[in-house]
Amino acid sequence: VFDRLRENLRKYKKMPLREVIDLSINETLSRTVITGVTALMALAALALLGGETLFAFSVSLIFGIIFGTYSSIYVGVPMILLWGVKRGDTSSDDD
Fold first, then answer.
1. pTM
2. Residues 6, 11, 14, 20, CA torsion sign
3. What are the tens digits of pLDDT across the range 51-79?
4. Residue 9: Cβ within 10 Å count
5. For residue 47, what are the contacts with CB-CB under 8 A and spacing of at least 6?
6. Max mean pLDDT range (1-5, 36-40, 86-90)
7. Is 57 strand, coil or helix?
């Protein structure tokens, strides 16, 4: 998400920051969700079929994937609005 945001900030220099953030999230949301679901399916199979030894490890990885995906999209990106981003040539952004 952050890489796409960085690319879009360079590509759309006149667009307001909020719109660039929305565009970046929309461009990466489906890929992020599909990747997370694929990893969750593999970890669910590992938790169910891996036996007692791998169960706790698999469950902890499942929680990590869920919270990591959520935080990178819905927590990390809005932090950019709070911190403010300086675009190459401009000294302030439109809010």
1. 0.70
2. negative
3. 998 999 999 999 999 998 888 778 877 78
4. 20
5. 54, 55, 58, 59, 62
6. 36-40
7. helix
